[in-house]
Amino acid sequence: MSDVRGGAAQPTLVVEGLKTHFFTEAGVVKSVDGVDLSVSRGEILGLVGESGSGKSVTGFSILGLIDQPGRIVGGSVKLNGEELTTASPKRLRSLRGDRIAMIFQDPMMTLNPVLKIETQMIETLQAHIKIGHAEARARARDALGRVGIPSPEERLDSYPHQFSGGMRQRVAIAIALLHGPDLIIADEPTTALDVTIQAQILSEVQTLCRETGTALIWITHDLAIISGLADRVAVMYAGRIVETGAIAEVVSNPRHPYTYGLIGSVPSRNKRGQRLTQIPGMTPSFLSLPQGCAFAPRCPNADAKCLEMPELSPCPSAAHRARCFHPMPEGAEA
Amino acid sequence: MGYVINRLLQGLMVIAVMAVLVFIGVYAIGNPVDMLISPEADQAEIQATIVRMGLDKPLWEQFLAFINGALHGDLGTSFLYNEPAVRLILERFPATLELALAAILMAILVGIPLGVIAGLKPNGIVGRAIMTISILGFSLPTFWVGMMLIMIFAVNIGWLPSTGRGETASLFGVQWSFLTGDGLAHLILPAINLALFKTSLVIRLARAGTREVISQDYIKFARAKGLSEPRVILVHMMKNMMIPVVTVLGLEFGSVVAFAVVTETVFSWPGIGKLLISSIVHLDRPVIVAYLMLTVMLFVTINFLVDLIYALLDPRVRRKESA
User: Fold this and answer.
1) Which residues of B touch A111 (CB under 8 A)?
2) What is the ipTM of this complex?
3) Cβ neighbours of residue B269 closer than 8 Å, sequence gap 6 or more
4) Which CATH class is domain B91-322?
């Protein structure tokens, strides 16, 4: 980069206009269709959306791990200024696990059932740095200790099935943290866990990221989970970001009718006894997306104008933007 | 350890049950005396033969005698060869074992790589071609393929011999073909013939296993860790994919040994398959019984070994059984 600025000013990850399409026999599935994101050092970004909104595909696109028949067809992903969509497979491999790590949704499925924890950790170290077995084992042990696994030395010789779900997710997190990555993408990592374990893991990951300055993208369908965790939030609907801003601002003052509906449908203590509102209709199929705004058929505010695609525009400021022609009035009670 | 002992006891139970079934099944049918004695023999001669062979005693007595003999390693004397049945079979066993091992080895060496390739690229031209070939391997009858192999490679091109074991060399006091060049040349065609079906089976198993394992989260996670593709495939994928393949291959190995009959007949391979056919034709009961008993023991042994390998591959099995 010719433009040498302070490291703090440049976001760790900048995603612009990312498009990932799946070319299936039934048609082109535009799972991600023009997504912009950015996340800086030590910052936590929540990526929220329903199942099938394209949030996981966004995560995998950043890592360059899209399986056939999917393909990144447009946009750019820049990690520390380096373009990843055009990077060689070799370069991507060297970044994965080293600079960008990922934590998956189901801890029961992420660890290879037939390999010892030790093997799975040491191979991650040896994939990126020259390191002897004994030293690698010591680092693996320390990493397990750091995520709160008791007697890590013995646990290294265990197999995944000897751990509980929460412990397995800790192991996965320890693996993700091994190389002190610049960015961690966490794809609903607590969805499969007990609520109490969820809270523990959330706060631990938050602490670890703040300490190491790692940028974190936390993918979830649960706004409530990230409202206490994230700095900013991006809400996805049908492959696009529909609203983004500081978490407190978006939660207290949602402008996009979809976000508004999402927040309204979350049970909370001060809505006790009242009916939860629900968003009418269901997530549209990617094969038959409505023309213009994809949310229009379910939207209370929609009119003829919504047959065109609105831009993600300041609402009210550049820090809080929504993709809507008819945003909810400011301060509307959800 | 408890796991091993448990498996051993189960194996012994199977052998005991089979001994009863085999004895009753084989001894309750046909009359070998008719086949063995010349039609002109008089009643006294027939009676003498029946008494000599112990066929006049009640069934349960015969069974006790059979069990008693079996425990001493004696499964009867062949009516036809007048030699201990076990010795007859063991003499021919190395030839069959050698053939079966060569066939299984071919099936593994060819089948697993092809299956993995077909599983990784299921829609590619190569993947489809492999699957088409495997369908042929499944559906072409063994005897016909054997004859075609002989016609092409032995008769038309003349590269390889068509029948027999060729020159053999001794190892551990047993004659083996694969130790000499000539024997090896004799081994190739029958081994290919016998391997064809198993190779197709291995291709299908490996392909199905690969397709199932490759879509698992732990494979994606392995990639997300930045592991090289060879490591992802050869370690993370293969070790999981091999579990069903090993199980089926182990069982199939038993059936290859036990039922190499067709190939042995086509290639005049002097193994136990040929012996079995002639014993059945002549109702040589002790040989049939000995053959079936040894086959059962072979299966039990192989099953036992498969269980051990299985436990070696899959730590979850070890845990479950020992707990």
Assistant:
1) 218, 221
2) 0.86
3) B95, B96, B99, B163, B164, B165, B190, B260, B263
4) mainly alpha
